[in-house]
Amino acid sequence: MPGIQQFDTTMKLLQKVLDLRTKNQEVIGSNIANAETPGYAAQTFSFEEQLKSAFSENGLRPVATQSNHFPLAPAGLEQVSGTVSAKKDTAGLGDQNTVSMDQEMLKLSENEILYETAVTMLNKKLSQIKYAVNGGA
C-alpha cells in the first residue's frame, strides 16, 4: 500500500527527531550539572544539519522509478546521529568552566518546545490512523 510507505517515512523521521532531542537534553543536562565544576568544557550537541542533508538534493535522497510513487524513506536516516563538541575556555580567566547557565536554560527551553512539537505531530499521525481504522468515525 503506497500510503503506508509515506506514513512510515513520517513515523521514522519523528522517531529519529525524538531520539536526537533526547540526546540533546542529556547533553544540556550534563552541562547544567557541571556548571560549577572547575575546568569543565560545555558541550553542544548538533544534528539539524545532518538531518536536513538526509533530505536535501546533495544528501541521501531516494529516487522513485515511476511518477505515481510516493516518496521513499531516506536511506541514511538511521545514520543521522549528531555530533557532540566541547567549547574550550579561550579567555584563560577564572576556573576555565565554559558553561553559561543563561545559555543552557535557553537551550533547554528550546529543546523542550521542539520535543513537545514532535510528540504532538506523532500523536496527530496516530489519531489519523485511528480515525481511518474506525472507518471515519
Short recap of the structure:
The protein has helices spanning 2-33, 48-53, 101-133, and strands spanning 42-46, 83-87. The mean pLDDT is 84. It has one domain.
Can you offer a commentary on this structure?
This protein has helices at 2-33, 48-53, 101-133, and strands at 42-46, 83-87. It has a two-stranded antiparallel sheet with strand order 1-2. The two termini are 22 Å apart. Helix 1 packs antiparallel against helix 3. It has 137 residues and is mainly alpha-helical. The longest helix is centred in the last third of the chain and has 33 residues, at 101-133. It has one domain. The protein has 3 helices and 2 strands, in the order H-E-H-E-H.
Mean pLDDT: 84
Strand order of the largest sheet: 1-2
- Radius of gyration, whole Å: 20 Å
Largest sheet: 2 strands, antiparallel
Structural class: mainly alpha
Q: Total domains, how many? A: 1
Query: What order do the helices and strands follow?
Result: HEHEH
* Strand content range: 5-15%
Helix content: 40-55%
Number of alpha- plus pi-helical segments = 3
Key structural traits:
2 strands; 7% strand; mainly alpha; 137 residues; 3 helices; two-stranded antiparallel sheet
